[in-house]
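Chapter review: from sequence to fold.
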Amino acid sequence: MLGKENGVNKALFSSNSKGACPDCGGLGYNKIDMHFMADVKIPCETCEGRKYTPEVLGYKYKGRNIFEILEVTSEEAYDLFDSKEIKDRLKMLTDVGLGYLKLGQTLDTLSGGESQRLKLASNLHKKGEFYVLDEPTSGLHLADIEKLLSLLQNLVDHGNSVLVIEHNLEVIKTADWIIDLGPEGGDAGGKVVAEGTPEDITQVKESYTGQYLLKMLPY
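The token string follows.
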């Protein structure tokens, strides 16, 4: 968008291209090797952490330069861009509870749950797939969990299979089929304690999951 808006090569706005700050290579920071300790990252003095050369930062789209655009969250960016294709992709991020992520956020800063939801968002248009998600609700607000559950159900309704490894009862109670492993964790677990619908699980006294579900399901 910035390239088209300003009539310049779009490659300028890639942080690892010729438009990148020459001193930090478009990272926005310089890394100090501490040998036996974790590396220390300090903001680049040349670009002040903005990753690009002054020339590139002078190009604007709707009053924002490339650094300012990359600092916008995906939810905020929905109103910033006019392209339907971009809006559709941004909506997918919001739908999986990632609307708070910045456009320029790097993959190495994401948690495991965030990485799973990001991958899920990139595959929402596919059908006939088998998805395995490990604790996808980790760190999510209840409202975002409801969005995620709606999306998972939508995947199933469109002919996909979804296997979720989860401890959150809000997720477990919506499952079509549960395999409850236990009875405890670690060395005291690993056995199939109960298997069936959420209602079936509540009838198994040995299932801790079932006893908690019994308090949540309407009867």
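Two observations follow directly from the output. The mean pLDDT is 90. The longest strand covers residues 191-196.
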